[in-house]
Design a protein that fits this description.
- By secondary structure, this protein is α/β, with parallel strands linked by helices.
- Helices cover about 40% and strands about 20% of the residues.
- The relative contact order is 0.12.
Amino acid sequence: MKRYTKRTIDRRMINEAARHHDFHTVKSLGQNFIIDEGVIEAIAEGAAIGQSDLVIEIGPGMGVLTAAAAARAGRIVAVEIDQRLLPILEQTLAGFDNVRVVCQDILKTDLKSLIREEQAADPSLAGVKIIGNLPYYITTPIIMKLLTEELPLESITIMMQREVAERIRSGAGSRTYGVLSLSVQYYCEVKSVVRVPKEAFRPRPKVDSEVLRLRLRREKPVQVRDEATFFGCIRAGFRARRKTLANCLTGFCGASKEEASAIMISVGIDPGRRAETLDMEEFARLADAFEKRK
């Protein structure tokens, strides 16, 4: 993981563009723009962007990360929800002929069609990578959309609230370990790129951030009979962290408490344990046992 080093970019250009277009941030959109070159370079380098890559950026803001990525990538598609930023992006990204800005809500964007369209137009775009500074309030829905839509992605390099990054990185036994940890780690290898203080943004948020690189796995770390049952078992196990698994899994797949306990014992798991003590392999065994019971 890189150490954070403060290097300020040319804020005057951004400030002038914002003033010229009378732009003011909207809190409800989670608009906190990166203004530090060190962080921008860390994301661009951490994503390992190359000339044969199609890069999709989530929330380009005023285009500072977009420009850094465009200098490395074959093609950038930046998805921005706030149409007020479009004229600013046109100004800050002038000179880049490999950037396309799409004004859409990323949660409603058909990314599979977008990727297919870009690669059909340029067959040299072999790899697909995601970058972005995610709005704190919809970080988890965005991540899960990217992971569950079966997109042809190599990696996702994104900034998020540090607390969320810690949850994603956590392992069994940690107080921050839970559904998000297991879900992301099932699909990805997780690597921390850089920790980012609140001073690196404009306007300044109340919390620090962290950039993670999620590299999509070619093979899942565990093999399960049914993914829906697997994730359902995890969600049920964590629905009341202070309760035992026997209590949490009562009713799951229609099992009584006695039946749930018997299933756990059959796969070598003590019904008195709590969900945060189980690793992914144990959840896989448990889910398969419930699936077999069906």
